[in-house]
Design goal:
Blueprint lengths: L1 E6 L6 E8 L2 E9 L3 H10 L9 E3 L5 H4 L2 H8 L3 E3 L1 H6 L10 E3 L6 E3 L2 E7 L8 E6 L4 E5 L7 H6 L5 E5 L4 H6 L4 H8 L7 H11 L6 E5 L8 H12 L7 E2 L7 E4 L2
Parallel strand pairs: 3-4, 4-5, 5-6, 10-11, 11-12, 12-13
Antiparallel strand pairs: 1-2, 1-14, 2-3, 7-8, 8-9, 9-10
The chain binds zinc ion (2 copies).
Length: 259
């Protein structure tokens, strides 16, 4: 199993999860927060094309996660998984029969060799879901757009072999920024985004010897830096900052393999 961030941040998020088993390869795109042209460029950089995708999973309705998901599903016949709440928030656009599949907290989804396990998180969207993905041997946890930790989300990301974890902002940089007070309160609130120290706490609570890859994601370009995020996560799991991968808004993070 391997995965590749195609880019992460408020300008757009997309992540490919791939599992090869015998002659079958299954690929899920988790979030699709780019225009179709941009997505194609980024997929090509990862050695893929749109028709290589078996499903798209949209975590919530914010534009940096939805992007061209509906058009992609409509034009390329790719099943689109999302929560009912997210779909309602998007205005329930028309899709051909059977193309739309509803995801719910606690209900596993099978896409070829991959199983997705969606779970509820606190974020300012109608029914946001994050997820873990497994091929039966390896497990990747994906946790971005989360305002605060909960016992439920912590339980969902235990024993992951890889974790993509939001490190949105450094609290001091956010407090000092020129953002309006209302926006600062939203970002730093319980339904906003994870600060580096909150992400570090979550990592400390799910870290174990088998956790091979930690990817810091959804960094604010104004109120964070790759070095600050990497330092915070490294300290939480006894690693060196260089051991933490930081997903770039433009370049993503390249393929990371679990083997
Ligand atoms: Zn986002
Ligand atoms: Zn969001």
């Amino acid at each position: 199993m391997r995965f590749c961030s195609l880019g992460s941040g408020s300008s757009g998020n997309a992540l490919v999860v791939e599992s090869r088993c015998g002659t079958t390869t299954s690929r899920v795109l988790v979030d699709c927060g780019f225009s179709q042209r941009e997505l194609q460029t980024r997929l090509a950089r990862a050695g893929l094309a749109v028709d290589d995708l078996d499903a798209v999973f949209v975590t919530h309705e914010h534009g940096d996660h939805v992007g061209c998901a509906v058009t992609l599903s409509r034009r390329h016949g790719i099943p689109l998984w999302t929560s009912r709440g997210t779909w309602r928030a998007l205005g329930e656009p028309a899709l051909p029969e059977g193309r739309l599949r509803f995801a719910r907290d606690g209900e596993p989804i099978t896409v070829g060799n991959l199983q997705l396990h969606p779970f509820t998180v606190p974020h300012d969207a109608l029914e946001p879901l994050q997820l873990s993905c497994t091929d039966g041997q390896w497990r990747l946890g994906v946790l971005t757009d989360v305002g605060s930790s909960t016992a439920h989300l912590l339980a969902q990301i235990q024993r992951c072999d890889a974790l993509v974890l939001e490190c949105n902002h450094d609290r001091t940089l956010l407090a000092q920024s020129r953002y309006p007070a209302s926006l600062k309160a939203r970002i730093d609130g319980p339904h906003g985004h994870l600060a580096n120290d909150s992400a570090a706490q979550i990592l400390a609570q799910c870290h174990h010897a088998g956790l091979r890859h930690v990817v810091a994601a959804h960094l604010s370009e104004q109120n964070n830096s790759p070095a600050l995020a990497a330092e915070a996560l490294a300290a939480a799991c006894g690693a060196r900052p260089a051991d933490i991968t930081v997903a770039d808004p433009a370049k993503g993070a390249g393929w990371l393999t679990l083997k």
